[in-house]
Amino acid sequence: MTAPFRSGFVSLVGRPNVGKSTLVNRLVGAKVAIVSERPQTTRTQIRGVRTPASSQLILLDTPGIHRPRTLLGERTNARARATLAEVDVVCLLIEASAPIGPGDRFVAGLVHEVETPKVLVVNKIDIARRRAVAEHLVVATAELGEFDAYVPLSGATGEGVDALVEELEARLPEGPVYYPGGVVSDQPETFLAAELVREQLLAMARDELPH
C-alpha cells in the first residue's frame, strides 16, 4: 500500500542570527534566503520548497524575533508571530554554541501560545562541543517548555538535517502538491536577485550601509 502524500507549511522562528536562513537553504538544496552575520537580515517572510518523493514542505524563513526598539523591529516581529498559528509545524531554533538566554525564552513563550506542533532545533552543533549540545537539550527541556521533538543539527554542514525532515514529515497532514517539482521558492527571480545583491552589500559595506 502506497503511503499517503503529505504536505504542509513549516515556520522557522527564533531570535536573530540563530541560523534560520542557512537551515532553509540546506533543506531546500538551493540559496533562497540570504545569510549575514548582521541581525535582522531577513526582513520579509521567504518561502522555500522541499519536494521529495512522498511529501512537500513549504518552509517559512521568518525575521528574527526580538524585543523591538524601533517601528521596523515591531513590524518584523509581527510578521514572524503571525505565522505561528497558521502553519502545520513550528520549528524553534536555538544555538548550541551560545547559552540559552532571555531572547530564546521570549520566543519560546510565543511559540507555546499556539497549539501548533512544535520542534526544538538545536542548531550549529558543528561549532559546539558534544557536551554543550547535551547540556543545551537538558536546559531547553527545563527552561523552554515541552516540545514534540528535539533535534540537534547543523544547517551549515547538513549533519542531523535528515532527522529533522523525518520529524517534520511525520507531523504534516495529507495534502496536495502546492508547487510543481523543481520549484524551490515562491519568490520571483527579480526578488532573489535583489536579495543576493543586498547580501553582498551587507558583507562589503558593513559600517557604511544603513541597516
What order do the helices and strands come in, and which of them pair?
Elements: E1 6-13, H1 20-28, E2 46-50, E3 55-61, H2 71-82, E4 89-95, H3 102-111, E5 118-123, H4 130-143, E6 149-152, H5 161-170, H6 189-204
Parallel strand pairs: 1-3, 1-4, 4-5, 5-6
Antiparallel strand pairs: 2-3
Number of helices, counting only DSSP H or I runs of 4 residues or more: 6
Please state the structural category.
alpha/beta
- Which radius of gyration do the C-alpha atoms yield? 17 Å
Unreliable stretches: 35-44, 190-203
Q: Mean of residue pLDDT?
A: 80
The main β sheet shows up as: 6 strands, mixed
- Per DSSP E runs of 2 or more residues, the count of β-strands stands at 6
Strand content: 15-25%
Percent helix range: 25-40%
